[in-house]
Every structure is written in structure tokens, then in C-alpha cells.
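Example record

One chain of 149 residues, shown exactly as stored in the release files.
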Amino acid sequence: MYELILTVVLVSLGYIFGRRAESKHYKSIIMREKEMNTLPAMASRRPPSDGHYDQALVSGSVVIANDYFKSFVAGLRNLFGGQMRSYETLLDRARREAVLRMKQEAKTLGAEAIFNVKYETSNISGQTRKKMPVIEVHAYGTALTKYGI
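Predicted C-alpha cells for this chain:
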């Protein structure tokens, strides 16, 4: 009985603190996205033809881990099948954070836009059952700056 109570307490703590950390991270992302909204990032392969620009490669990378509660729920979902929402939010946060870091690098270069944006995603936690899901998302693109800046 003691083990069951301990498990329930630990899973509950994982849920509370995981939700708090995720909520705080999302608020930070939303605030920074509003600030960086003036710097467009597009998947177009060709730069705009309305001017002469210098080009520079910019990138942003982030590593994010899932919390224990979401891993527990995902394990249950894996038994019964269905959509893995806990991993979707993990990927969403990682992708958005990587883009923000890429935009920050472009902003320090004085870029006016980023084109040809690509993403690379990798699972760096391995395939063993005992490890937490940890992913890396790398966003990269070509920043455009006016000549002479």
C-alpha cells in the first residue's frame, strides 16, 4: 500500500511541477514571439528580388525533455493507442524556441528577413524504456541584410 501511495504522490508532483514549468515556458515563448514578429521567417527557397542583400546562415537550437507525468501518460497511451498529445506539446515548444533563437541571431546581424527556413529534429534520449524523452530541434535559414550593414 505504501508503494502505491508513494507512486501516486510522485506522479501528482510530476504533474504539478511539469505543468507549471511548461506554462511558464509557453508564456515566455508567446512574449518573445510578439517581440520578434517584425522579423519574418519563411520557407521560400528564393530570396525576395526587391533589393540587394548580403546573406548569412543563422540557426537556433534547443534541447527539451518531457516531464515524468507526461511520460507516464504517454506510456499508458502507448498501450491503448491514440494521439500522443504530450509529445506534440514537447515538439511544439522545441520548434518555437528554436525559431526564436534563430531569429535572435538574425536580429543581432541586422537582418530584415530570414528565408529558406528548415528544421532538423532528433531524439537524443535513445530507445531504452528507462530514459526520459529528450529531443533536439535545430532551425536554420538564410538571413538577409542590406549591403554595407
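Notes: The chain has a mean pLDDT of 84.
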